[in-house]
Protein Wnt (Desmophyllum pertusum), 354 residues
Amino acid sequence: MIARIWLLSFVFIIVLAAIDGRKGTRQPRNEAALGFCSWLKDHQLKKCQAHPLRGLAARDGVELALKECRDQFSDRRWNCSGVTIADVFQRERMLKVDSKESSYLHAITAAGVAYQITKGCSLGNWEDCGCDTRQQGRGQKAGEPSWEWGGCSEHYKKGYDYSTDFMDPGKNAEKKSISNQIITHNNEAGRKAIKDNMDKSCKCHGVSGSCTVRVCWRTMPKMAKVASELRRKFENALKVKLNKNKTKLTRLSRGRRGRKRNTNNRRPSPSSLVYAVNSPDFCQADEKYGILGTLGRTCNKTSTGTDGCRMLCCGRGYNTVNRVNDVKCNCTFIWCCHVKCDWCKKEWVEHTCK
Ligand SMILES: *[C@@H]1O[C@H](CO)[C@@H](O)[C@H](O)[C@H]1NC(C)=O
Ligand SMILES: *[C@@H]1O[C@H](CO)[C@@H](O)[C@H](O)[C@H]1NC(C)=O
Ligand SMILES: *[C@@H]1O[C@H](CO)[C@@H](O)[C@H](O)[C@H]1NC(C)=O
Ligand SMILES: *[C@@H]1O[C@H](CO)[C@@H](O)[C@H](O)[C@H]1NC(C)=O
């Protein structure tokens, strides 16, 4: 009898704790989401208020995209550091000009939003989307043993559609302006970088490690991979203008090897990044565009590339600092189970731009 009462009260407490836990995590998250929505405008505001948690996921996608951007551009004068999440949603500062850097930002953030929304769907965060169940039965690819489709295939189309709706210039925006056409093109190129790099993950089932049944599901590429693909496209970005009718973008630049291209077909390919305005040199800080300048940047004295002191410091020269740090060294494994290390002094020379 006493045991039963104990059991009942135990269950009761767990139920209470669960209810409390839901309140605790759901409520503030929803409020945070509405708070985020409130500083959006126009069609983004409406979409965000209709689905605040999804808006918050879009914001997380932009945050992830900016982090990857900083990783990709750490070796350049423009290292993506001055760009904020607000700049992206409000198309402010760097994102206001149709430069190469801006084209990268639009592409990577549109991809980030598609990525994060798709992830949310796969995790079952929302009622109206989930895993992609279209692929079923057996699959086979040349040079690979066949497999069974199963698990949760990521429904990349859900994120793609959301990103298109949310990140592209709205229906009421002057759609035909060159800026809006460039943004739409680059956003699409970013989302395409996910689509074109969809992969599959597999798991083996069978007795003791044998692979009698292989089950696979579709996965999106990691954002780091998307970021580096887009970086390649950034290096080959195409300069464009509007055609005579002002309905389409056409390329200005010649083919890369100086060949004369077919003049009838000068549309940039959908996967390329496009821009219209040449970039500044990014040497000096310019708050108006979120440019931080290269003062104080660590540079590589021996490199002749963009991270070399010559390029990075814009000819202003560099300071040399001797740095010392305590690092773990001489680590030994002690049975069982710790690692014991000594502290050693590590010394190196660092160069920073004047
Ligand atoms: C401009 O648009 C009209 C109608 O859409 C079309 O007939 C014409 O060929 C276009 N001209 C050019 C130069 O693209
Ligand atoms: C980017 O540049 C800024 C300004 O020079 C600098 O403060 C920041 O540390 C740099 N970020 C990275 C990741 O190198
Ligand atoms: C500096 O550049 C040289 C030449 O490109 C390279 O070999 C070296 O690894 C770089 N050093 C650092 C710390 O990145
Ligand atoms: C590493 O450990 C060995 C043995 O304990 C010691 O003789 C040596 O000085 C240590 N080296 C450093 C750099 O601490």
Residues 329-330, 342, 344 surround 2-acetamido-2-deoxy-beta-D-glucopyranose (ligand 4) (CB under 6 Å). The longest helix spans residues 2-38. Residues 10-16, 18-25 have pLDDT under 50 and may be disordered. The CA atoms of residues 79 and 138 lie 45 Å apart.
